[in-house]
Amino acid sequence: MERNDFSQWYIDQNGPDQLHCFGIKRVLVDYQSSVQRIQIIEIESLGKCLLIDGRIQSAEKDEFIYHEALVHPPLLLHPHPRKVLVLGVGEGATIRELLKYDHLKITGVDIDSEMIDFSRKYLQAWHQGALNHPHFQLVLQDGWDFMEQTEELFDIIILDLPEPYPDTPAYRLYTAEFYRMAAEKLTAEGILVTQGETTRPGQEDHHFFIKNNLSAVFRHTFSYQTYIPSFDSSWGFLMAVKNHLDPFLPAENIDRLIKERIKGQLRFYDGQTHLSMFYLPRHLRPDSQGSGGTGPG
């Protein structure tokens, strides 16, 4: 293995006793908005990386894994999605994936206008023009306030939010109170999906905290996971519905839906991948979770 000497290192504290380090080739952008600190650094193994308040949110070489896993399961499991709400527009890659479907009306809500301007300027590789698409409507507003005030109903609600650290604006968007508001904004067959934190053994409480809050509101919740290299962790996602949903469709059914509904290329997600995400190891399945977690510290 060739050794490189780096003058700067990105250090991500992934737990009380864990530091994960990446050598920084270059710091490309370092900007403080009115809401958060936004940086782009370049790492040899991950390419350009977007950091928000010092935490990796997305990496050039593997962001497709996270965004395809977040978007396509709910969009294909819903019988006829038309109206989609995204809370947390960020780099625009979630919108990019949604635009692979025809006839969607997409509303994106973000609290930080400077983040959107930053993405338009620096993150073209992520959004690929999606932020300027005519089928996408941007609303610059706090997600809680939007959910409280909107009278629209949505077929899909996607919560692509930062991790729920206490004393951050995102934290209350993971509470049962917020999920009750979101449930009222879903159509009868609507699906809510959220990023679901790490499922790393020993830290599952972060995932169960979100799942328990969703389960207090929704009739059915479903965990799924995949490995995200830039997070150096298996990463959870959660879907929630008010009525029945069966995510365990045969792989060939998912592949057929992909062919029928999606235009453009998928690099990660297909029928086999879908099932691999939903078939969980025993310690993450409902009968082994106990009471779940109390949330991140």
Overall description:
- This protein starts with 8 loop residues before the first strand and ends in a 19-residue tail after the last helix.
- The chain is built from 9 helices and 12 strands.
- It has 297 residues and is an alpha/beta fold.
- Helix 6 links the parallel strand 9 and strand 10.
- It has 2 domains: 51 residues, Spermidine synthase, tetramerisation domain (Spermidine Synthase, Chain: A, domain 2, Roll), CATH 2.30.140; 226 residues, 3-Layer(aba) Sandwich (Rossmann fold), CATH 3.40.50.150.
- It is 27% helix and 31% strand.
Descriptive key words:
7-stranded mixed sheet, spermidine biosynthesis, alpha/beta, Spermidine_synt_N_sf, EC 2.5.1.16, globular, 2 domains, 297 residues, Rossmann fold, thermospermine synthase activity, 5-stranded antiparallel sheet, 12 strands, single chain, Spermidine Synthase, Chain: A, domain 2, SAM-dependent_MTases_sf
Give a brief outline of the structure:
This protein is α/β, with parallel strands linked by helices. 27% of the residues lie in helices and 31% in strands. The chain folds into 2 domains: 9-59, Spermidine Synthase, Chain: A, domain 2 (Roll); 63-288, Rossmann fold.
